[in-house]
Design goal:
single chain; binds (3R)-3-hydroxy-3-methyl-5-(phosphonooxy)pentanoic acid; 332 residues; eight-stranded mixed β-sheet; alpha+beta
Length: 332
């Protein structure tokens, strides 16, 4: 069995995945669109070893306990596939070391890049030769958004009614549209809501049905704006989507108020900056850290403005990321 190391970019959803039609298979109620990021990534080394009696996991330098069951369940899926293909004839356990170069569990989708990296590295280590589509389907079962992180550039995840129909694909390459994402870190605390718990509450919001009625049109408009490199239309749609998504969180039962004062300060600042003619928009997931999107020409101005806010601890500047990369330098 080989030792394999993979680096995978996290992503930011332009149209959010929120709510599942199948919890076990992680089939989403609606499709979603995202941009892969080149400066926020997970690096994971996996090696299946014949002398291990259980899986050993270290994530960001710690023996992982919170995520252990989910990671081991995912390794079980990969072991089952390997058994089906007669690559192994008994349970074989893995050493997994993974690290994120950005704060995890703060709303920056570390589970997406993490499970995508785990999927690719574990499959290669055990000898499974899967297509991008097959890897996406498999990664989705570990963490929904991981199915997008298998791809590069601008990505669409098809909702699908069966496991085989629900996977992601690149619809615009990473170099086709240059967008800058300034990720404003307002806190590195662990968020108090996991997305897995939140998804289950989506349908309790009285706005959820209204969201679903319009989501197909929204997906088509966002895709068109990316393909036409129409940043203003894209930004307007993406910011409105982030607020719509938070209106679902605010009206779920129980409701979820996830924004920190610093998050709102960034939102207001983005809007003030826009009034001065700068094309800049925000979007946000289930955390308090916030993505600020602009064009390269305005990156410096946006950076200086955000750096002046006392609530912004640091800023990670990202461009559009490519497909996952295999690395020769292993983590162990
Ligand atoms: O893949 P999960 O279960 O971490 O859910 C991700 C949910 C959002 O980040 C809020 C939206 C998205 O599409 O990434």
């Amino acid at each position: 069995m080989q030792k394999i190391t993979v680096q995978v970019g996290s992503d930011i959803a332009f149209v959010k995945y929120w709510g599942k039609k199948d919890k076990v298979l992680r089939l989403p109620i609606n499709g979603s669109i995202s941009m892969i990021l080149d400066s926020l990534y997970s690096t994971t080394t996996v090696e299946f070893q014949s002398d291990l009696t259980k899986d050993e996991l270290i994530i960001d330098g710690e023996q992982e306990e919170d995520e252990a069951v989910r990671v081991i369940n995912h390794l079980d899926r990969i072991r089952s596939l390997a058994k089906e293909q007669k690559l192994i004839d008994r349970d074989l356990f893995a050493s997994v070391v993974s690290k994120n170069n950005f704060p995890k569990s703060t709303g920056l989708s570390s589970s997406g890049s993490g499970f995508a990296a785990l999927t690719i590295a574990a499959c290669q280590s055990i000898g499974l030769n899967l297509s991008e589509k097959e890897l996406s389907i498999l990664a989705r079962q570990g963490s929904g958004s991981a199915c997008r992180c298998i791809c590069g550039g601008f990505v669409e995840w098809l909702d699908g009614d069966t496991s085989e129909q629900s996977y992601s694909q690149t619809f615009a390459e990473s170099n086709s549209f240059v967008i800058k994402d300034l990720v404003a870190i307002v806190s590195e605390e662990k968020k108090f809501l996991s997305s897995t718990e939140g998804h289950d509450l989506a349908e309790t919001s009285l706005f959820f049905k209204a969201r679903q009625e319009k989501i197909g049109v929204k997906l088509a408009m966002v895709k068109k704006a990316v393909l036409q490199k129409d940043f203003i239309t894209l930004g307007e749609l993406v910011e409105a989507e982030a607020l719509e998504f938070h209106s679902i969180l605010l009206t779920s039962q129980p409701n979820m108020l996830l924004l920190y004062p610093g998050t709102v300060e960034v939102m207001q600042t983005v809007r003030l900056l826009r009034r001065t003619g700068v094309p800049v928009y925000f979007t946000i997931n289930t955390g308090f850290n916030i993505h600020v999107l602009t064009l390269p020409k305005y990156e410096k101005k946006v950076l200086e403005t955000l750096q002046n806010l006392s609530s912004v601890k640091r800023i990670i500047i990202s461009g559009v990321g490519e497909k996952p990369k295999l690395l020769q330098d292993h983590l162990f």
